[in-house]
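We emphasize that the prediction below concerns an isolated chain of 196 residues; any contacts that depend on oligomerization or on bound cofactors are therefore not represented. The input was used exactly as deposited, without trimming of termini.
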Amino acid sequence: RIPDDAVDPAYLPSLAIARRNAQTAFRVLSSNLHDFATGKLTIIKEEHDLHEIVHNAFDNVSIAARDKGIGFHYNGPEKALLMADQKLISVFDNLMRNAVTYSPADSGIQCTITEAETEEPNDSYQVTIRNPANLTDDQVKAIFDRGLSYGDQEGTGYGLSNVQTLLDYHGGGAQAEMIGGHLTVDVIIPKESHRW
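Result of the prediction step, given as a C-alpha cell string:
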C-alpha cells in the first residue's frame, strides 16, 4: 500500500478512487471466481446505499468524464437503502461507463433515484440515467443484447447484457429509450429481492 504522504497531494483524489476500485474489484472477483468454479451465481444479501453506489460509479469514470468535459447531476435522496448483492455495483459501473463513453464532449449525465411505481408501494427504487446520444430505434431496442457494441469503441458488448442479467437475479430489470436526443435508461431494483 502506498502511504498518502508519499503521493503528490494533487493525485490523492485519484489514489482514493483507485483504492476503492481495487477493493471493489477484489470483492467482486473473489465472489465471481467462486461462481465460475461452482457453475452458479451466488447471491449474498447485504445492505447497500444506492445513492452511494451511483456516486461511486460516476467517480470511477470521473477522469474520463473530466477529460471530455462531462458533468454529473444527481437528483434523489441522500440515502436509498436496499438489500442486494455486491454484484449490483457492477450494474451501475457499466451504465456510467457507457454513459461517459457514448456522450459527446461538453455534455452532462443526469441521474435520478425515486420510488418506483410498482404493484407494491415503496418496495422498489427506479434509477433513471440520461445522457445525450445518437442511437437509432433499432440500436436502442438491442442495447442489452449480448455481444453488441457501437461506434469505434473497442468493447466486448457484454457489459449491458450483464446489467440485465444481474438485475434479473435481483428481481429487477432495465429498459432504454431515446427521449429528446437523450438515451434514457430506467432501472427498477427491489429494496429487498424476494427471489433469494
